[in-house]
Amino acid sequence: MISNNTKEVVNGSNNNSGVKDRTQVYWHDESPARENFEALGRALAMSGDLFRQPGEDGGLFLVKPDGTPRSITKGKQLSAVIADRIDLHRFLNGKQKPSRISAGTLEEMLNTEAFLSRFVPVDRISSQPEYLPGFTLTNPGYNDGGVGHRVFFVGESPESSDSMERINTFLDVMDFHTQADRANAVAGLLTVLLRHHWPGGKPIILATASKSHSGKDTVLDFIAGMTPKTSVSWEPADWATQKAIIASLNTDPSLGMIRLENARVSGRPEIASAFVERFVTDSSPMLFSPGGRAEPRRIRNEIVMSMSTNFGVLSEDLLNRGLPIHLKPNGSITDRRSDIGNPRHQYLPRYREEIAAEAYGMITRWRANGMPLDQSKYHPCTEWAHVIGGILMVNGIEGFLDNYADRRVADDPIRNGIAVLGSHLLDKCLPISDVVAEVSRLGLIDPLIPKNERSSYEAQKRGLGKVLSAHVDEKFVIPSEDEEDQRVEFRLEKLRKRFENGKATYRYGFFMVDETESEVDDGPDNGSDDDSDDIVISQDHPKIA
Q1: Which of 52, 51, 44, 53 is nearest to 16 (CA)?
Q2: pTM, rounded to two decimals
Q3: What is the pLDDT of residues 345-401, one digit of tens each?
Q4: What are 401-435's pLDDT values in tens digits?
Q5: Would residue 243 count as lying in a domain?
Q6: Which string of b and e fits 49-87 if b means at least 16 CB within 10 Å?
Q7: In which domain, by residue range, is 466 found?
Q8: Which of 189, 309, 375, 404 has the lowest tally of Cβ within 10 angstroms?
Q9: H or E stretch covering 491
Q10: Number of domains in the chain
């Protein structure tokens, strides 16, 4: 123990592991455990690189020399820390014993207030600056912003820029479909910087495109900025996606963004993940990997999730929780050239810090203007939408969330197929057998009947029924065959009643809703007439149940 006992002397605190000045601690086995735990805790806390972890699970954070955190939750881990910092003298009834303390005793100590109360609590060790409550940036070292915002920042205070040049130069070369998509990309960048403010209250970023290699991953790289990130391949099986995400978080607790890449339909009518949908809105999700050996643990949800896709229908729950960003390039992808070089591999790495400085500047200007909220913006993540909308408003960026819920999914082949089918079946109500026949006649089997449901006529009916049922009550817009300047809107309905044969059956109806002058903004006109990948436009505002 450290006390006034003449034997028990502190020679001063060590600067870090391996230095000569080491603290002398005397441990008496016959003394109450609390006294020994308190003494060792006081001595270790003097090193200045150990902090208490949040929550009730116990343990410490060690800030390594390179600034990265290491979790100390096991007795063996703590034993190594003690060996690097402490000269431990252990006694029993006045006789000196081996200085090593058992792993079991150390593990017990790691879960006691007597030991842990000696350390300053932190919620995280960060190598990137963060925004504390009040939207002020962390200073280097320890920042006490209250629970959830106690941060040890390892780094230098960032620069803040009055310019928007680097951000706008990047945005100008990307093929955003509308002004809203462009504004939402900037909103995504700000969301990542401010992600600690809305645990479970920020959207999943949905990057979609009309063609492969349109720049979805480039936009997501722009949004991630300098924040630690990782990519996870989309898996149709929900448990596989869950396992991959949790493995990433367990490997790198500092992650700020997780990307689900190339999501697509596989034997199902829509892209869905109960785990992802639940994770996005859960403020403190439980990390539990199916079949994994790691102990379940809760985290404060400060992760920004994103998903990229060209194919398939996104589930209603994903759309409700989404920040949509759609890319629609004109012409051949291979013929594209950029004045800034390769946006992803040249421009962004070269100007990453300047882009970050401009984003910090946007928030600084918003604070200087009194931090106004834009309460006109609708999204289930209400507080997030009002704050981000306010920042964009102050900085003159228009269109934020104007495309929310405009598309079920960008250019998805299933909805396009239904739109074509409906154009031939307007105001008709048919049994599934007749609809299957029409699907076959029109050559729409590939988009509308899953591959695993094509082995027989009965399987085709069953497969098509699943696909159509997933889109019941949705609106579709198709070009009028009579006038190029008009668009026809219809709704897909599923009815069960007694028809002309007197037997109650299900039928699918394609009923025209409206016929109006087209007001669809297809983006800048570059002379291309190819709008065939954008025949699906509208649906009502979704709500989170």
Answers
A1: 44
A2: 0.70
A3: 999 999 999 999 999 999 999 999 999 999 999 899 999 999 999 999 999 999 999
A4: 998 866 544 456 777 788 889 989 999 999 999 99
A5: yes
A6: bbbbbbeeebbbbbbeeeeebeebbebebbbebbeebbe
A7: 413-517
A8: 375
A9: strand 486-498
A10: 3
